[in-house]
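Human: We require from you a standard protein entry with sequence in single-letter code and fold as tokens, and nothing else.

Assistant:
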Amino acid sequence: MVAIVLSSADNSVSMGNNVSLAGAGELSDLQESSLGMVSDEVRLIFQAMNFAVICQLMDIFGTCTNIVNVVVFVKQGFKDSVNVSLMALAVSDLGMLGTLIWHNLCFNPLFHEADLPFDSIEMQYLTGGWPHVVFTRITSWITAFITLERCLCIALPLKIKSALTPKRVTAIMVTIFLLLIGSVSPVYYANRYGLKFFPDRNKTLIGLIYTPDREQVEKVSFTINNIIIPFTAFLTILACTIVLVVKLRQQTKWRKNTKPTAHVDTLSSRDQKVTRMVVMISALFIVCFTPICVVFIGMTVEPELAINGKYHNMFFVVFSFGYILESTNSAINIFIYYRMSSRYRQVFRQIFCRGGKVVKHNTRPTNTSETGSNLPRRSQALDLKEDIDR
């Protein structure tokens, strides 16, 4: 949900949570006159700690974990539509974390003051900030699709499973990527790069230049990318997660009070495992993005909670923590997959752990008369247990 696009250009303020900041430590006249509840010194401390250290380390860690996810999902194959969705989620998270690494680097004072042919803070606006917005929105909508698909599978299991084939889910994932990438195209029309003079540095560098209608264009982009798209996805995830939790509890009670056949029990166990994993993914998303949603609501109640308002320093500090939560959401999904998916765990161990091996299922029917022993029955029981785990 959170996606702050920061720029030092002309000390201007980009619409919504696409925020323009003056260069490190610089304040406009309005900011100098009213520091609000957080001092400049405190803001700079949080800027250094949250952006340059905590968030950057989390982003690097998350990039590594999502590369691992991509490798494992490719190894598993894409015969299962859930794998297709989780693969798309890993790719989106990779893009989100990668662009945030570049964004944090551009705001590092040492990098900003280096002898570069461009202004790093303005350069990140179109190369780090807005691409980060895009991947954040894509992650939100893929998560919304996964939770919605799981809800529909519970309500209409046969129809949904036959309708949402891996090829169709792949088409849906590609469509989500293309639509949300296209949603920020007006920003790239109104903002571009060119040579400009920076008085504070007494240099001509590559920086942002604007079209005359930039303000109007970014108002539209704010409405689409910071209100309609993220809040619709968040509310979808929240509603579907509540439904899934309720259904899981109902099924748990039903299983305690009945004794289904082995075949029905196997299907129920498999579906419940997938549903529990989806609930964990969506719950993590809700926990990480709820604070920022509350801040957005607070901004409507208190207009001074803005980058150019009385509480601008508090605004900056709050959103620096928002970046950390956002990075956490994308970085630790690997632990959910490893803990809750026996298939993921098995392939992970095969690839990254010595001695790991894939357990092959017995595909041909066996009976005791072929071998003269009772061992095949035990083998079939183990195969059934493995199928349930999957």
User: Anything to note?
Assistant: DSSP finds 15 helices and two strands in the chain. The first strand starts at residue 191 and ends at 198. The radius of gyration is 25 Å.
